[in-house]
Design a protein that fits this description.
The complex is a heterodimer of chains A (368) and B (320). By secondary structure, chain A is an alpha/beta fold. Chain A has helices spanning 2-37, 53-57, 72-88, 101-113, 131-139, 168-183, 198-214, 230-244, 259-268, 284-292, 303-318, 355-363, and strands at residues 61-66, 91-94, 118-122, 143-151, 162-166, 188-193, 219-224, 250-253, 276-281, 297-300, 332-335. In chain A, the strands form two sheets. Chain A has a six-stranded mixed β-sheet, sandwiched between helices. In chain A, helix 1 crosses helix 6 and helix 8 (230-244) runs parallel beside helix 9. With 320 residues, chain B is mainly alpha-helical. Chain B has a domain at 44-243. Chain B has a two-stranded antiparallel ribbon with strand order 1-2. In chain B, helix 3 runs antiparallel to helix 13 (267-286) and helix 12 packs across helix 13. The chains are: A alpha/beta (368), B mainly alpha (320). Chains A and B meet through strand 7, helix 8, helix 9 and helix 10 of A and helix 2, helix 7 and helix 13 of B.
Chain lengths: 368, 320
């Protein structure tokens, strides 16, 4: 019986062994295909049916609280939202702040006291820090939404009326798939995350699922570095990993602003040729690092497109339309092959085409 | 007498002995990766900026003053360097003296405000540092700026001697120069007298105000040098990251005051302290510990070292 079991196990193992190279090649091919489909110019997909935005919004006011006006990525989005609102002819106010939750609370109270219809918590102003104020605003008839905070599969946090999401999970998948594709299924990566950001869960689940599906034998270690400690902890963490793991071939900082501290650690260890960097956000300085060779790949989003998409979802909520969860804001993979399209030095809004502008114009029923 | 001398030597080199013990401990646990020249090259090469910031703090600390603005000087100079180099195309031979003068200017402002208005340096430098951070955010539009001239990176981390990035040797050179000035020049002695007792110094004929002003200027210049090397290390300038170096630098300065010349802020003690802390952090990273362990290492090492130093010296009363 035991001998039979052994024979069966051996046969199964041999069978698996003979199948596994093909299986591994399938995974690499799937990863390569996933990357290819996100490397070209993105197309516009309408998030919902068309509606007359100008007429519906004529007597309404939107109040945007950005996570921090000192972060260019977020400030650009909130400024562009204001410009679009001016074009559509309704009142929009941005609550300038420096990322302090007490300032967010002042903002939401200001919105309630000044007759705003909707408060948009933009790109990181996390309502879990001020749930009582959210409930008070809702009780006063003000809708509260999070915009560009959660991933598609994450529920609206802290009881807000709607959460317009970004496909963070896809970003995580693309980072994993990039390394699988480039190493031919031999990824050995250090993944740097910051757990306090809500989007991290979504990105990490995409990353781990892509590795599980396309390269179960790939190795990766996930290390949490809180945002406030990026400047002091990332470099020694990467340096330590480069020493302890001689086969390391990728560092994946899941937010590209981390790469400022990753690239020196690789340079000091003299491993620029062996260890590559793949990351997410499309921040201009990180795109410039692709040009000089210290970052290999960065997944970007168009900030102006995000402004259109978030405002679209917020207007729909006020106009009695169905709430939008999937903003349909596309991601694009930037590498040495297409980085020239973002300009030199890189511009946050270049490299994504302009199909979305005409698309939203039609969607909002704006005349030429 | 002999016993006293032995106790003093143990106190002087206690941290060095613990450092060697830490190296041996990590070496025994991971001989294949920790005890390699490439790892020591990483340990020495990656923290030159922290050494220079710590050395910068040591000068005003010796004179009895605090300079909380040094990390903001670093960040400001780093941003000015990146903007001048990447955005305006100014050559490095113009940038380097310009930013050194800027650092000296900030130091002079710190000194002038502290001395003229007789406000504690802690408050003045906190205010000036915060003001500088505002300017840094303003001129950078809160952006990280990349594309700095490659020569700066070349002469910070790419050029190597014995496998260690050249920035390490700048830090050691500065420590040696500071050691010479503090130990063998009239200014060094005046600085020490000023720190030990301003009134005594004044009555002994030392121009205490001038000495304190110069200590702030020296600190500003050191902050500027650290800013230049920081920009060369990362190849870019980030409007807030350098500010995080302030507390580790203070930890290293206080830890350094427990060794080599115990009871005094001293350059070689500071160098040993930085590399002792960095060795601990590197070893823990190599062993795969989580990042919070680094804080345990920094905080724990500081408290334990100061306690042990006090025990060895018979728990004498100390101001700092």
């Amino acid at each position: 019986m035991t001998s039979h079991l052994r024979t069966t196990s051996l046969a199964a193992a041999l069978g698996l062994a003979s199948l596994s190279p093909a299986y591994a090649q399938d995974g690499v091919a799937a990863a390569t295909e996933a990357i290819a489909s996100y490397s070209g110019l993105p197309t516009f997909t309408a998030p919902g049916p068309a509606f007359d935005a100008k007429a519906c919004m004529a007597d309404k006011k939107i109040f945007t609280i950005p996570a921090s006006s000192a972060i260019p990525f977020i400030k650009t989005i909130s400024d562009h939202k204001g410009e679009l609102a001016a074009k559509l002819g309704f009142e929009h106010m941005v609550w300038e702040n420096q990322g302090d939750p007490t300032q967010w609370i002042q903002g939401i109270e200001h919105a309630v006291n000044n007759g705003f219809n909707l408060v948009s918590l933009l790109a990181g102003a996390d309502p879990r820090f001020f749930e009582p104020q959210v409930a008070a605003a809702q009780a006063a008839g003000v809708k509260v939404v999070t915009s560009h905070l959660t991933g598609l599969e994450q529920d609206a946090p802290a009881g807000v009326d709607a959460a317009t999401a970004i496909d963070y999970k896809k970003a995580g998948e693309l980072m994993a798939n990039w390394t699988i594709s480039k190493t031919g299924g031999k990824t050995n990566a250090l993944v740097l995350v910051s757990n306090e950001a809500l989007s991290t869960d979504s990105i990490v689940s995409g990353l781990t699922e892509a590795f599980a599906a396309n390269c179960p034998d790939c190795k990766y270690e996930i290390v949490n570095v809180p945002i406030i400690e990026w400047a002091t902890k990332i470099q020694p963490t990467v340096a330590g990993a480069l020493q302890s793991n001689a086969n390391l071939n990728y560092v994946i900082p899941i937010y590209d602003s981390m790469s400022t501290f990753v690239t020196p650690a690789i340079a000091i260890a003299g491993k620029g040729d062996a260890v590559k960097v793949a990351t997410f956000n499309g921040t201009p300085f990180a795109l410039d690092l692709i040009r000089d060779g210290s970052v290999e790949m960065d997944i970007g989003e168009n900030l102006d497109w995000i402004a259109h998409a978030m405002l679209d979802a917020e207007m729909r909520l006020l106009c009695g339309q169905e709430a939008i969860r999937d903003s349909k804001v596309p991601l694009r993979v930037f590498s040495a092959e297409n980085v020239a399209e973002v300009g030199a030095p890189a511009d946050a809004a270049m490299g994504y085409g302009d199909a979305y502008q005409a698309g939203y114009k039609d969607l909002w029923m704006l005349a030429e | 007498m002999r016993q006293l001398n032995l106790a003093y030597q143990v106190e002087r080199f206690g941290l060095v002995i613990v450092w060697v013990a830490v190296i041996l401990l990590f070496g025994a646990m991971r001989p294949d990766t920790f005890l390699t020249w490439s790892n020591f090259s990483t340990i020495f090469g990656s923290q030159a900026v922290l050494v220079i910031v710590t050395l910068g703090l040591v000068v005003p600390l010796t004179a009895g003053d605090f300079d909380l603005s040094i990390a903001q000087v670093l960040t400001f100079v780093s941003m000015v360097t990146a903007i001048l180099s990447a955005k305006l195309g100014v050559p490095l031979w113009v940038i380097i003296p310009t930013v050194l003068v800027l650092g000296a200017l900030v130091g002079a402002i710190n000194g002038a405000l502290t001395l003229y208005f007789r406000v504690h340096s802690l408050i003045v430098t906190l205010g000036v540092g915060t003001f500088l951070h505002g300017i840094t955010l303003w001129i950078s539009d809160s952006q990280t700026i990349g594309g700095v001239a490659r020569a700066l990176m070349q002469w910070s981390i790419i050029e190597r001697f014995l496998g260690i990035p050249i920035a390490f040797y700048y830090a050691i050179g500065l420590a040696a120069a500071m050691w010479y000035v503090l130990s063998y020049t009239a200014f060094g002695q005046q600085l020490l007298f000023t720190g030990r007792g301003r009134e005594v110094g004044r009555l002994s004929g030392i121009a205490v105000g001038r000495v304190r002003l110069l200590s702030f200027v020296a600190s500003g210049v050191m902050g500027a040098i650290a800013g230049l090397i920081y920009t060369g290390t990362t190849g870019s300038a980030n409007p807030s990251s350098g500010t995080m170096l302030l507390l580790p630098a203070f930890a290293a300065a206080f830890l350094g005051a427990t060794c080599i010349t115990p009871g005094r802020f001293n350059p070689w003690g500071s160098v040993v302290a930085v590399y002792f802390l960095v060795t601990g952090i590197n070893g823990l990273s190599v062993l795969g510990f989580r990042t919070f362990v680094q804080d345990l290492c920094y905080g724990g090492a500081l408290v334990v070292a100061v306690m042990v130093s006090q025990l060895v010296s018979g728990r004498k009363e100390r101001n700092l």
